[in-house]
User: Fold these one by one.
Assistant:
Number 1:
Amino acid sequence: MTRLDLFIDRMVSQRACLDHAIAETALIDGPVFELGLGNGRTYHHLRERIGDARPIYVFERAIASHPESTPPDERVILGDVTETLPATLQRFGPVASLIHADLGGHNAQKNDIFARKVSPLIEPLLAEGGMMVSSDRMYFDTLTEMPLPGGAVQGRCFIYRR
Ligand code: SAM
C-alpha cells in the first residue's frame, strides 16, 4: 500500500462512517463534538449534513482552517483537549449525540498513546445511544465497537456506541 492509498482509504472511511453515524444519531438532539479542526474538511461535512438540527462544537488548539470551514467563535472550544474535555463534561454533562475525533498525526505509535490518554476523557461525554467516530482505535470500558458501514475500510476508522 502506498501512502496515497492509505490517505484515500482514510478519507473514504471518514465520510462513510460520519454519514452513517449522523443518520444513526439523528433522533438524539444533543450537541456534536468535533475533536481536531485542522483544515476543517470533516467539520464542513458535518455542518453541511447536520445543518441547524444540532449544534456542532469544535475542539482545537489553534484555529488554522479554510475560511469556509471555520466555526463561529461561540462554537469553538479552544485549548488542549486533555484540559477542555473535562471542562466540557462539567459544562454540558453526558449529552453528546455524536463525537468525531481526528486528532492524530503521522506517527501511529504516538497516535495510539494519545488515544489511550483521551479515551477516558471522551467516554463520559456521550449520551445514551450516542456514537463516537475515530480515526484511531480507542480504549473504552463502557462503549461498544460497532461494525463499519459499507464503503469504509477496516482499520482506517472506528465507530463506538453507548
Ligand atoms: N479532520 C480534520 C480535517 O478534516 O481537516 C483534520 C484534523 S488534523 C488531522 C488534527 C488536528 O487536531 C490538528 O489541527 C491539531 O491541531 C489538533 N489537535 C491535535 N492534538 C490536539 C490536542 N491535544 N488538543 C487540541 N487539538 C489537537
Number 2:
Amino acid sequence: MPHPKTAEALIKCAGPIECSLLPRLLHVTEAAAIAASYQMGRGDKNYADQVSVEAMRRMLNCLDMKGIIKIGEGERDEAPMLYIGEEVGTGEGDLEVDIAVDPLEGTNLAADGIPGAIAVMAMAEREGLFHGPDIYMDKIVVGPEVVKYEKAHPDEKIDLDAPVIRNLEIVAKAFNRNIDELVVVILDRQRHKEKIKEIRGTGARVNLISDGDLMPGIATAIRGSGIHMVLGAGGSGEAVLTAAAMKILGGKMLARLVLPTVANGGTPEEIEAEKAEKMPRLETMGITEENINDVMDIDKLAPGKDIIFSATGVTPGILLKGVSLFGEGDARVHSITMGSSGVVKFTDTIYIHDKEKNPLRMG
Ligand code: VTB
Ligand code: MG
Ligand code: MG
C-alpha cells in the first residue's frame, strides 16, 4: 500500500481520462502553440488562429477517444473546424469526453507579438464542463486561500454582486495583508470603466490587460504569481476553461452569462436584436430570460470529476514562456498541464529533428 500522502497515491486516484489522455493533451496544445508561433508578430490574427486550429485538430484526431467539442471555435456554419458539436478523436476505446478548446487564446497578442498568447484546452467526462453559448461571462476568480478563509468564516463569502471592497476585504484577510498590497487583473475595456474606478477606490492595485484574462485567473491559484483576483466580463469559453483549471487547483470562481450587447452598453435595439438572434439557441441549452442571470459556481461551470487541462505559451506570459524556434521546425515550448487527481506539471519540451544540426541546448 502506498503511503496515502505520496505522489503514487495521487497517480493511482487519477480517473480514466487523466490516466490515458493527460500526457497526450500536452502534445495537442504544444502543436497548436508551435503552429501559432510561426505567425507571431506577422499582424494576421486570423491566419495565426487558423494554423493553430488546424494543428490542434490534427493532434486531437490522433487520440483514442470519442470526443465532442463543447466549447470551440463557434457554430458549425461559421467555424469550419473545431466547431461546437464536432466529433474528434479516432473513436477507438471507451473514453467519451467533452472538450473545450481555444487553440489560440489572444489572437491579437500573437499577431502583434506581445505577451500572453496561449494555446489552451480542457477535457472531462460527458457533461463535465458547462457548455453554454458563445457569449460573455462576468466573473470573479480567486485562489484556494480564499476558499479556506470562507470555510473558517461562513458569513464572509466572495459574492459576484457585492461591492468590490467587500470581496477585496475577504481576499486581504485570507492572505493576511492589506488591500493596497493586492493586485486585481481586469480587461481594459470601456465596459469595465466603472469597475476599474471601483477597484482603484479600494486602494488595490490594478493590472489592466488588453486580452487574455484566462492565465491571470489561473495565476490567482498559484502562490507567488502576484495576482490575487480577476474580475470582469470576457468570453464565456475562456471563462469555462478558467473554471476547469480552478476546479483542479481548488480555487473559487463565480460567473454569470451576459450578452455582449448588454455588457458593452448597446442600444435597446441592439440588445433586442442580439436576444432575437441568440435566445432561441440558448433555450435549447436550458438558458432562458429567467435564468440567464443566475450566478454559477465552480461546480456548475466545471462539474466533472475527471478533468484535465493544458496550456502552452505562444508568446511569453505570466506563468509560461513563449515558443522558441531553432530552425526547421525544431522548437522549445513551455506548458502547464494538470488533472483532477491533483497533479500539476510545468513542462519544458524540446522537439529536435536533426540532433547533429541542433544538439540539445540549455536555453
Ligand atoms: C476576453 C479575453 C480574451 O476576448 O475573453 C475577451 O480573455 C472578450 O472579448 O483574451 P472582447 O474583446 O469583446 O472584450 C479576448 O480578449 C480574446 O479572445
Ligand atoms: Mg479562439
Ligand atoms: Mg479566445
